[in-house]
């Protein structure tokens, strides 16, 4: 049997790679473009709940990106009380494989990948679906993905006003301080949902609710706004989709009926959002098969649950850069 070596990148390595904003956006855009062209396989995520869903669960994401010549499986834990132990709520491992032989190619700490690719999908969605003159961002949530939402959105739009809110004061204050340091601009910290979101041009909901609770009011959404809800438990009022000119998802296969969790879960399960009423998947828009925003007056909602293919794309980008920078380890497999 031939020798088989696996590229291994731990959390220290992935941090040392210091992917730039554009490197992250380019990698994720490539995966979305491939999806729109039918050059990916996305298996709907599955879940492992060790005890109860309010304590946390594991997500297992599986995908293949033909242009990258990689298949991948990511396992990510999502445990909301991890902060009490000084741990991130989401920690992950990504495995990359040769899609023709099944040979394992890489093992990567994917905690940062999860955060980055989520923020990148939010930002790429905004690039195609938000008004080009968007100047005010309202953001609910302060977890790791939230940082990359704001950072990558501001990279594209250079906001005049950024508002943030999170349930715990210490969390939202630390979040704002980090953003101010890294973005070099004032961040407005709100102690309630309405002041954070109302009449913003771009409205992001990345909350950590223990159960569905309609805290995000439809009346706060102004004409022409871009709304991105992706909390595990829905925070939307049920009539939110009634005011939308377009509803876009990342992948209908994992958003459709019968799947657990998600911001539009009730809307889908009760037939308010269907494959027929959906405008497009984001990959169709990125590759040019479907239009994105067509007028400033359109009010648009984008629901993304997380794409395995974007994990694969960022993992591939990290492996390639690590080889150029001589970062990481090689582990003997066979």
Automatic annotation (TrEMBL):
<dbReference type="GO" id="GO:0008473">
    <property type="term" value="F:ornithine cyclodeaminase activity"/>
</dbReference>
<dbReference type="InterPro" id="IPR036291">
    <property type="entry name" value="NAD(P)-bd_dom_sf"/>
</dbReference>
<comment type="similarity">
    <text>Belongs to the ornithine cyclodeaminase/mu-crystallin family.</text>
</comment>
<protein>
    <submittedName>
        <fullName>Ornithine cyclodeaminase</fullName>
        <ecNumber>4.3.1.12</ecNumber>
    </submittedName>
</protein>
<keyword id="KW-0456">Lyase</keyword>
<keyword id="KW-0520">NAD</keyword>
<dbReference type="InterPro" id="IPR023401">
    <property type="entry name" value="ODC_N"/>
</dbReference>
<dbReference type="Pfam" id="PF02423">
    <property type="entry name" value="OCD_Mu_crystall"/>
</dbReference>
<dbReference type="GO" id="GO:0005737">
    <property type="term" value="C:cytoplasm"/>
</dbReference>
<dbReference type="InterPro" id="IPR003462">
    <property type="entry name" value="ODC_Mu_crystall"/>
</dbReference>
